[in-house]
Design brief:
ten-stranded mixed beta sheet; 3% helix; 229 residues; OB fold (Dihydrolipoamide Acetyltransferase, E2P); five-stranded mixed β-barrel
Length: 229
Amino acid sequence: MSQVLIISKTHLQHAMCVGGLELNTNRSIRLMSPGDHHYQPLDTPLNVGQVWEITYHNHPNIHAPHTEDVIVTAKQFLRNQADLPGLITQRNLINYRGHVNNVFGGHLHWTNSGSGYIPVNGPFPDRSVGFWTCDKDLLKRTFDNNKVRYSYKNGMAYRNLSYVGTQEPSDIISAGTIIRVSLSRVFPRPGQENQFNNVPQGYYLQLSGWYTNAQLANPRPETIDDLPF
């Protein structure tokens, strides 16, 4: 068993993707359900800021860049964790700082519309999740079906991060805030390439959440999927 801090919770079509931090080792893990190795159900009791005692084993089929997947076999709630920004800072867990191009070790490519992605054939970073402190404010933009992106000004254009988290979106995420970034599963999915003309197949940059001591006050309504477009 390990004490695991729930550090992220993001929307998928019919499930929740839950990220954890193993407190003894600082290992980032993605908490998958047993059986067919699915994500957590929509009504999962696992929430950001909670510490659970969790028994798990590594997923039997790990594929880069998603090296964090584990299968949960038992869990028990322990406590709530105060001051997540302080904990992340004190443990020196911030992976990327400054310009968005630094995220995922400079491996990101960018579409003409400003979406970041790792090509399906790599090269891959050593992780699919991380903490980032941004050097500029990120501005919220809302699209159809309640989809939200956060935009980073890059010269005369913008880099865009699709927001898939559960906390209520802020109009601005201020520079210096600790942000959780992640990579989607491969998109377009195999067999769907013809449905998304001119969209490079790859693992797309997502914004999973950010950390302030008031972050849990307003959960975000469910969205229809986790795709970055």
